[in-house]
């Protein structure tokens, strides 16, 4: 298991334990985690704190030169908001736990030169499968459906 | 002057008075403002609270059916993060104060079926022109440069 994806999964599990949507993310610079987070729709009534957004926010204000050397890990394929944010800050690489549950803007990211790696991790898939089975409406709200 | 763009400009001016980046936004449903906000990079050390994101966050959790009837007004052309969020929530129309200072993802929005209206408002342009002249580094940070 990739050590940073494992940390993103820990974040997803923390979110689940809080009653939230179990998606987690870490932002890594120079092989160190500089921001970590998880979806906070339920916990904070937030419509913008997806896992990736929370990780970026928790990393704080960084220079373009730092972002340009970062990798963002996320347990689930990033939606258009999170992908747009990755493009805004010029993060060159995204590592995705799984994209069976949901396929975000991977194509757009690749077209814009972002390296996209999909791990196809069974733990990530199972967390989302069981969550969505029990929380279909909440999940749809999170992806704007 | 469009009444809702005027409210977005008020938000931009509030941000400026707080020492922040002067970009404002309002989210309008059924001709009522349901969320308003402004860029909070400086005020909250936030990397995700652009004006549009703040307006959406302040509108709170809304159903897809509400978003599908909304118009978002913003003083400046929306960056890839804000545009991605507009796409995530299926907001069908964006009214932009100006796009001389910065051109965001207007082309992508249009390709995805979002109606994009640019007002080309002199007040919006002047607010950003004078701000960027005095705060070039801060502005670059906000757009990931």
Short descriptors:
homodimer; 145 residues; alpha/beta; Cytidine Deaminase, domain 2; 5-stranded mixed sheet; 46% helix; globular
Mean pLDDT of chain A: 98
Question: What topology, given as strand order, has the largest sheet of chain A?
Answer: 2-1-3-4-5
| Morphology of chain A | globular
Can you count the helices of chain A? 8
The CATH class of chain A: Alpha Beta
The percent range for helix content of chain A is 40-55%
Per DSSP E runs of 2 or more residues, the count of β-strands of chain A stands at 5
% residues in beta strands of chain A: 15-25%
Q: Largest interface, by Cβ-Cβ below 8 angstroms: which chains and how many residues each?
A: A-B, 33 and 33 residues
Largest sheet features of chain A: 5 strands, mixed
First-to-last CA distance of chain A: 32 Å
Q: Which architecture name of chain A does CATH use? A: 3-Layer(aba) Sandwich
The radius of gyration computed from the alpha-carbon positions of chain A, rounded to a whole number of angstroms, is 14 Å
Oligomer class = homodimer
The total tally of domains of chain A equals 1
Sketch the topology of chain A as an H/E string, one letter per element. Answer: HEEHHHEHEHEHH
At CATH level 3, the topology of chain A is Cytidine Deaminase, domain 2
- Low-pLDDT runs of 5+ residues of chain A are none
Query: What class would the helix/strand composition of chain A place it in?
Result: alpha/beta
CATH homologous superfamily (4th level) name of chain A: Cytidine Deaminase, domain 2
Pfam families (chains A, B): dCMP_cyt_deam_1 (PF00383)
Subunit structure (chains A, B): Homodimer.
Protein name (chains A, B): Cytidine deaminase
Subcellular location (chains A, B): Cytoplasm
